[in-house]
């Protein structure tokens, strides 16, 4: 059976050789030292004599080697010790040579793989968001290249199995090396807004047709990123706050979606800028007592009521004349979750929508 040779096995062999030879030398040196001590020598004299013999220095014997026993010990120390030192030197040289070759050849192999990619995703930055993005894209089978200047994060990307290139994404040379001219999408997810704007400008200049998705920290950065050429701008802080607000406004949404089995529809709606929400109509809710048509008119087109849950019954396509009762569970499709909650959840009273008051 033949064993496939990999870079790891090639690197591992010198390390194992070095450890084995060090163990061998430890046995030889320890055995020779105790052998001299058996002849009446002190530990200091015995260890000194062994060092002189093993390293072939030859400054002279500490004590006279005048018995057959000492002759045998000295000859064995010379043969075994000198052979071990030769092997030890060779193993050290081999280890450093393999390490240097790996440093030289690894970037070359990585660059060769990157040069073969087309229609890939170029991820600038492998921080918290970059890690999750690369993981999800790889799970989806999307080819990607990570561009990262931090050596530690670069090693993490390589360990995760991603094609990773060392470089500063704000430099055009690094973007070119990462294959921006052949890439389909560039995602710049650095936590630095200025760097993301600069990367967006450089990427748009190098590849006018590439889709650019940029991360922004401050809300005021969105306009700058779009002016720089970003097609999509993601504000993680805004998304996080929006999700928390939806959890507060629509605590019933998750359970209702699980019950109705509409996760696929929800993803499709999100793709066109809509969301699927669920809420319970309170006794003082503005929607209580209204018909479906009146409740939808109240929202001014901000939502559509697609399902009413009442007791153990579910009306999947309620008629416009169907009345909304207290404790009804409404499932709505909305383009503005906050506005829908303001209309349907807020207590009954005067509600102002634009120039109209209800």
Describe this structure in words.
Helices cover 52% and strands 15% of the residues. It is α/β, with parallel strands linked by helices. It folds into three domains: 7-112, Helix Hairpins (Orthogonal Bundle), CATH 1.10.287.70; 117-234, NAD(P)-binding Rossmann-like Domain (Rossmann fold, 3-Layer(aba) Sandwich), CATH 3.40.50; 248-357, 2-Layer Sandwich (Alpha-Beta Plaits). Helix 1 packs across helix 2 (43-54), helix 1 packs antiparallel against helix 3 and helix 7 runs parallel beside helix 8 (221-228). The longest helix has 48 residues, at 68-115. Residues 1-11 and 350-355 have low confidence and may be disordered.
- For CATH, the homologous superfamily of the largest domain is named as NAD(P)-binding Rossmann-like Domain
CATH architecture of the largest domain: 3-Layer(aba) Sandwich
| CATH hierarchy class name of the largest domain | Alpha Beta
Distance between the termini: 82 Å
- Uncertain segments are 1-11, 350-355
Number of helices: 13
CATH topology of the largest domain: Rossmann fold
Largest sheet: 6 strands, parallel
